[in-house]
Amino acid sequence: MDYKKVAKEINDALGENNIQAAAHCATRLRLVLKDQAKVNQKALDAIDEVKGTFEANHQFQIIIGAGDVNNVYDELIQLTGTKEASTDDLKAVAQSGKKQNPFMSLIKVLSDIFVPIVPALVAGGLLMAINNVLTAQDLFGPQSVIEMYPNLKDVTSIINLLASAPFAFLPILVGFSATRRFGGNPYLGAAMAMAMVMPELVNGYSVANAVAEGTMPYWNIFGLNIAQAGYQGSVLPVLAVSWILANLEKFFHKRLLNAFDYTFTPMLAIIITGFLTFVVVGPVMQAVGDSLTAGLSWLYQTTGAIGLGIFGLFYSPIVITGLHQSFPAIETSLLADVAENGQVQIERSINSSDLRSGNSSIGGFIGVMLGN
Length: 372
Fold this sequence. Notes:
By secondary structure, the protein is of the alpha+beta class. 60% of the residues lie in helices and 8% in strands.
């Protein structure tokens, strides 16, 4: 392939000085154009080396193919004098000046947070399926596979450990990804999420029982009794915590001198976020998350196939519009619950007077978490 020739033909078809920014991925040129109306689509289609073109996310993408796209990109950059950019840089350029309503912006944020952690959840889910195959009764006979072959017991134990890890420590994955998306240090986000699932806290799945049995430990801080409750498997609390942490970090970066910034900004961001997490943010967002989870569970448990049919009927249009990307926060919470207990838990948001009603208010839940 004559890369210089292909680059010139592409540039001519796009229009003179029409490239605002350019990047490439494994197979495609990714371009932000000044005026897409100037593009000569017929000329582009006539270039043999061009496998196709399309527009997505305000980017004009030209398919070249693996192994060739990087060389064509280099020649195009040299020809046009356009500054080299990464795909992240290109996204920023593409979004600048593009007005987006708040709801669509929220969907984009959720997508940016959850898409990177999907492989970890997929791996955990598939490993869990393998574990179930090895331990299920009456699947290959009256006994499970590990009962028929006891030497596989330890293998199954390791598989179960690997399968449970992404869900047991889900807040750490979300904390890292969310804090990075909100413009903070992702490692601080992971550290804050680790604090939310520390072993000395009451496991998030056992909070209801601990309160009911009167065994919930509390911190006494400035007259407040704050429940030592963990947030294993939680999603919404760590999303809110990550946003607060990232913004506190930005706040201190702007106001502390360089000599103090590096040392004190992480400490101040963590300690302030930590107190807010266990006093207010965690209980509130846990209650909200449990309400959403309970709503989906109610739809399935109460209406059965009808509810699934309703959800399925609307899911395709939702996917087409991109609104399905607002679901990961709820879906990952459901997955984490299933992974932990084998069934969806919907009774974690409770108050002290009706521990298993599932109907408590956010205020009641905060009252329990504060020991009132």
